[in-house]
Automatic annotation (TrEMBL):
<comment type="function">
    <text>Receptor for thyrotropin-releasing hormone (TRH). Upon ligand binding, this G-protein-coupled receptor triggers activation of the phosphatidylinositol (IP3)-calcium-protein kinase C (PKC) pathway.</text>
</comment>
<dbReference type="Pfam" id="PF00001">
    <property type="entry name" value="7tm_1"/>
</dbReference>
<dbReference type="GO" id="GO:0004997">
    <property type="term" value="F:thyrotropin-releasing hormone receptor activity"/>
</dbReference>
<feature type="domain" description="G-protein coupled receptors family 1 profile">
    <location>
        <begin position="39"/>
        <end position="288"/>
    </location>
</feature>
<dbReference type="InterPro" id="IPR002120">
    <property type="entry name" value="TRH_rcpt_1"/>
</dbReference>
<keyword id="KW-0675">Receptor</keyword>
<dbReference type="InterPro" id="IPR000276">
    <property type="entry name" value="GPCR_Rhodpsn"/>
</dbReference>
<dbReference type="GO" id="GO:0007200">
    <property type="term" value="P:phospholipase C-activating G protein-coupled receptor signaling pathway"/>
</dbReference>
<feature type="transmembrane region" description="Helical">
    <location>
        <begin position="228"/>
        <end position="248"/>
    </location>
</feature>
<keyword id="KW-0472">Membrane</keyword>
<dbReference type="InterPro" id="IPR017452">
    <property type="entry name" value="GPCR_Rhodpsn_7TM"/>
</dbReference>
<protein>
    <recommendedName>
        <fullName>Thyrotropin-releasing hormone receptor</fullName>
    </recommendedName>
</protein>
<feature type="region of interest" description="Disordered">
    <location>
        <begin position="351"/>
        <end position="373"/>
    </location>
</feature>
<feature type="transmembrane region" description="Helical">
    <location>
        <begin position="60"/>
        <end position="80"/>
    </location>
</feature>
<keyword id="KW-0812">Transmembrane</keyword>
<feature type="transmembrane region" description="Helical">
    <location>
        <begin position="24"/>
        <end position="48"/>
    </location>
</feature>
<comment type="similarity">
    <text>Belongs to the G-protein coupled receptor 1 family.</text>
</comment>
């Protein structure tokens, strides 16, 4: 069987028996995958369990987190065992299933990035239209459509991979047809799930930057309701940039190997490409924690197993408000002959406390994601 041009994430070439290679490979993969699995699980939990985090943008981030988890579990963890044993130990069913899940996670993550890029463009550049278009229910329908389409598309890999046994008995999960047949598949994959999303992101974020610059010149960006969507957009732009950079080594290698007669399959460079892919799936929760105050507060609440900070701040106000009103009502009832003036005083005090309570809630809770200027 001719060695295929392209590489799978589990590596179709035999892993070297050098001790330093195995040590570096296992350490890097375990470190990156461990951080990524914990971080993405936390992203899913904070959005699902915290009501004020359930925004259209965060729905796409949950889809991205689940896709990244799929990549880390289906590609990263089997790679550890592959490095330690030097052979494929998951059998025929594992070869088909793990390869399918690898490409499913990769393609869904790309589609999720494209979806929240379009959502950000509508929310910033067309704020009036965003009120009806950028909704949680619509985001859920789009995410369901993305997963259904990608699940069907990736079924192609069930017919392209199989167990390969070399003459010396070395077992690997590899390609079962000649590499020339993979060229159109990889070119389509490269175009749909890498080139088009990046080109679309460049155009849309360019338009977003233009709109934000014009608003800055007019002085409207000083308003709190506008500054928060800007911070969210910056965070998502960083996610897109890192997606482009960390996927570039693997995508470039695949593209070059598709046209050369002798593919470049250096084991150390393949390890570098795989590590970049795993890092892309692991780094997004770190970005959220560093650039989003809402995610940072939600993560802290998850750490301490407490209510989110936004809900905790309102509790002392409620208790003190009810206590003050009760004391005022008691003192009025104990007086001699409660008159209209005292009743008006109580009503005015209640109104003031209610107003302070509402102001406290507005200050303690971040602005929603999809607010226009």
């Amino acid at each position: 069987m001719e060695i295929p041009t392209n590489i799978s994430l589990s590596s179709s070439v035999p892993v070297t028996d050098l001790l330093e290679y195995k040590t570096v490979s296992v350490f890097l993969v375990l470190l990156v995958c461990g951080v990524g699995i914990v971080g993405n699980v936390m992203v899913v939990l904070v959005v699902l369990t915290t009501r004020h985090m359930r925004t259209p943008t965060n729905c796409y981030l949950v889809s991205l987190a689940i896709a990244d988890l799929t990549v880390l579990v289906a590609a990263g963890l089997p790679n550890v065992l592959d490095s330690l044993t030097g052979k494929w130990i998951f059998g025929h069913v594992g070869c088909l299933g793990i390869t399918y899940l690898q490409y499913l996670g990769i393609n869904v993550s790309s589609c999720s990035i494209t979806a929240f890029t379009v959502e950000r463009y509508i929310a910033i550049c067309h704020p009036m239209k965003a009120q009806t278009v950028c909704t949680v229910s619509r985001a859920k329908r789009i995410i369901a459509g993305v997963w259904i389409f990608t699940c069907i598309y990736c079924m192609l890999w069930f017919f392209l991979v199989d167990i390969q046994v070399s003459q010396d008995g070395h077992v690997q999960c590899g390609y079962k047809v000649k590499r020339e047949l993979y060229l159109p598949i990889y070119l389509i994959d490269f175009t749909i799930f890498y080139a088009i999303p990046l080109l679309l992101a460049i155009v849309l974020y360019g338009l977003i930057s233009r709109v934000l610059y014009l608003r800055y010149c007019r002085g409207t960006l000083m308003k709190t309701s506008v500054k928060y969507p800007v911070r969210v957009t910056k965070m998502l732009a960083v996610v897109v940039i890192l997606f482009a950079l960390l996927w570039m080594p693997y995508r470039t290698l695949v593209l070059i190997n598709s046209f050369v007669s002798t593919p470049y399959l250096d084991a150390w460079f393949l390890l570098f490409c795989r590590t970049c892919i795993y890092a892309n799936s692991a780094i997004n929760p770190v970005i959220y924690n560093a650039m989003s105050q809402k995610f940072r507060s939600a993560f802290r609440g998850l750490y301490s197993c407490q209510l989110p900070v936004a809900h905790q701040r309102t509790l002392p106000v409620n208790l003190s408000g009810f206590s003050t009103v009760r004391d005022m009502q008691t003192s009025q009832a104990n007086g001699n002959g409660t008159n209209d003036t005292s009743r008006r005083t109580v009503r005015k005090s209640v109104t003031n406390l209610t107003k302070k309570h509402n102001e406290s809630n507005n200050q303690g809770t971040d602005q929603p994601t999809d607010i226009g200027p």
